[in-house]
């Protein structure tokens, strides 16, 4: 009998476990495979629009004014629209070179789960994900995601919805 190698859980998966939130581990290596990762997901019955990227944004108020927006991988972010929705003059992308210092994650591994729990940044979701019962976000490691109920994630991170289109 061959033993299956046990995959070590990420800190973000442990957070979900601590909060008794059911999830499924999934692989979407967007950085390495690009649109092919979405095609693979779709072929396994997962809508690409339900797979979210986590983008860290910087407000213009002070050096600690960060927020997080989660939107489907296939969509582009509209910074002017987000600033307008939040009643701000401007919003900028956070410096990719400083992401690990800002969030504790490298580019491609940012997740609303750990960022909210550890940093307390406000989390916003693109309202176009509302029709999906299940969504996927990074598990805190590049190429590794968790698939869970949208309502569970939004509640865990005290998320709000925004019109990002």
Automatic annotation (TrEMBL):
Per the UniProt record, the source organism is Liquorilactobacillus aquaticus DSM 21051
State the EC number(s). Answer: 4.2.-.-
Keyword flag rRNA-binding: no
According to its UniProt record, which protein family does this protein belong to?
Belongs to the prolyl-tRNA editing family. YbaK/EbsC subfamily.
User: Which keywords, in A-to-Z order, does the entry hold?
Assistant: Lyase, Protein biosynthesis
The record's GO molecular-function terms, alphabetically, read: aminoacyl-tRNA deacylase activity; lyase activity
Q: Which domain of life is it from?
A: Bacteria
Q: Which GO terms describe its biological process?
A: translation
Enumerate the spans annotated as YbaK/aminoacyl-tRNA synthetase-associated domain.
36-156
Per its record, how is this protein called by name? Cys-tRNA(Pro)/Cys-tRNA(Cys) deacylase
Record's keyword annotation contains Lyase: yes
């Amino acid at each position: 009998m061959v033993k299956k190698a046990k995959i070590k859980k990420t800190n973000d998966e442990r957070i979900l476990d601590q909060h008794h939130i059911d999830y499924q581990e999934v692989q979407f290596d967007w950085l390495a495979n690009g649109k092919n990762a979405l095609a693979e997901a779709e072929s396994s019955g997962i809508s690409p629009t339900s797979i979210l990227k986590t983008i860290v944004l910087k407000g213009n108020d002070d050096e600690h004014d960060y927020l997080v927006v989660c939107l489907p991988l296939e969509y582009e972010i509209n910074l002017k629209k987000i600033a307008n929705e939040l009643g701000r003059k401007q919003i900028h992308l956070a410096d990719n070179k400083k992401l690990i210092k800002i969030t504790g994650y490298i580019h491609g591994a940012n997740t609303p789960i750990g960022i909210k729990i550890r940093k307390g940044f406000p989390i916003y979701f693109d309202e176009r994900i509302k029709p999906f019962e299940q969504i996927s976000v990074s598990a805190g490691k590049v190429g590794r995601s968790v698939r869970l109920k949208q309502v569970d994630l939004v509640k865990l991170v005290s998320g709000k919805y925004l019109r990002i289109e």
